[in-house]
């Protein structure tokens, strides 16, 4: 039987669950290649703690699996040729595939605001999170850090900075009238109260017109800063938007019920790269990765894949190392319990993935 080549682009949450599921039942005629810039899998939901300096690098990365039929290429993907079934890499050159799985994640979405990409720091990659952390943590005392966006990442970073750099003036700027859009009013009020009590300034209703060196220009005036961090939205990786398919409003590929491109079923798209009615999350990416692997395994064995529906288990956030908030099965939680739960979820993920880092064919 001819060798079937599966190429996976991206080793984040979705990619790790894809490999864990696929490699455990890999048919003899299948070979898998992972292409990722980094030699370890990043825990992106914890990047805020790297930026705040409260967590070490080893705590936010995981080793990739090892398997006789898994090849890891640490390189940058330059292009995807669906006609020739080739992935072009900067150093490695061309990598051919029979089945392609795109798990390239997301980048910042600047909403067309002039100067945003030039002057704002980012948390959308491990390298950028580290660079942003260096820029903030080396500031002199009493300097100002402004975060644009009061979503989960902005809130967690602001709270964590209160622990690592209590001397800094931290401000969150947001266009909405409440923090944490999508959470319940009860949790929104709890988090805003916690931030206010811990000397984080929150400015609501700010429509940023443009960003210039050292200040934000908005409809009512200007806001000065020493360092600016963008946490106000994401969009799909630019490479995803080169695929031959339809896209949603933030550039994610529209897929069918099996996570395939409708007009190119040899290409699967998962995680933040795939359009979904559900908001982007690590939990959704993990589901996509496992589901795509199960679908591919069935197709390789000429079986009918089993369709599954995503079930959201809830969402948790941290307010420093002691307090937190979240919604679990429709129940609002605040205080120490959700913080402990979030730590437990991270511990469980690490242990779950660690069990799959060394896989051998029986």
From TrEMBL:
Superkingdom assignment: Bacteria
PANTHER family: 64 KDA MITOCHONDRIAL NADH DEHYDROGENASE (EUROFUNG), APOPTOSIS-INDUCING FACTOR 1
Sequence similarity: Belongs to the NADH dehydrogenase family.
Official protein name in the record: FAD/NAD(P)-binding domain-containing protein
Cofactor(s) the protein requires to work: FAD
Ranges where the FAD/NAD(P)-binding domain occurs: 5-289
Record-linked Gene3D superfamilies: 3.50.50.100
UniProt-listed GO biological process terms: aerobic electron transport chain
Keywords, ordered alphabetically: FAD, Flavoprotein, Oxidoreductase
Example of a GO MF term: NAD(P)H dehydrogenase (quinone) activity
């Amino acid at each position: 039987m001819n060798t079937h080549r599966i190429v996976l682009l991206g080793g984040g949450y979705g990619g790790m669950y894809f490999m864990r599921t696929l490699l455990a039942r890999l048919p003899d005629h299948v070979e898998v290649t992972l292409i990722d810039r980094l030699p370890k899998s990043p825990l992106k939901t914890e990047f805020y703690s790297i930026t705040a300096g409260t967590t070490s690098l080893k705590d936010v990365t995981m080793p990739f699996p090892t398997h006789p039929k898994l090849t890891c290429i640490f390189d940058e993907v330059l292009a995807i040729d669906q006609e020739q079934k080739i992935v072009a890499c900067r150093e490695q050159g061309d990598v051919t595939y029979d089945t392609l799985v795109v798990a390239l994640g997301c980048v910042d979405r600047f909403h067309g605001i002039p100067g945003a990409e030039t002057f704002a720091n980012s948390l959308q990659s491990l390298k950028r999170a580290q660079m942003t952390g260096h820029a903030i943590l080396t500031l002199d005392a009493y300097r100002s850090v402004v975060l644009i966006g009061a979503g989960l990442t902005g809130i967690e970073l602001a709270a964590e900075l209160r622990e690592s750099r209590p001397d800094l003036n931290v401000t969150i700027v947001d266009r909405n009238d409440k923090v944490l859009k999508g959470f319940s009013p009860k949790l929104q009020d709890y988090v805003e109260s916690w931030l206010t009590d811990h000397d984080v300034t929150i400015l609501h209703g700010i429509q940023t017109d443009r960003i210039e060196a050292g200040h934000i220009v908005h409809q009512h005036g200007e806001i000065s800063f020493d360092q600016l961090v963008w946490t106000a939205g994401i969009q799909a990786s630019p490479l995803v938007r080169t695929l031959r398919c339809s896209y949603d409003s933030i550039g994610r590929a529209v897929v069918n019920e099996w996570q395939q491109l409708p007009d190119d079923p040899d290409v699967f798209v998962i995680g933040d790269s795939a359009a979904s009615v559900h908001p982007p999350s690590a939990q959704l990416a993990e589901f996509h990765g496992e589901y795509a692997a199960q679908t591919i395994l069935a197709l390789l064995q000429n079986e009918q894949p089993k369709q599954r529906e995503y079930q959201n288990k809830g969402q948790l956030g941290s307010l420093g190392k002691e307090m937190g908030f979240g919604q679990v099965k429709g129940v609002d939680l605040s205080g120490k319990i959700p913080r402990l739960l979030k730590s437990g979820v991270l511990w469980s993920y690490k242990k779950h993935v660690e069990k799959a880092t060394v896989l051998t064919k029986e």
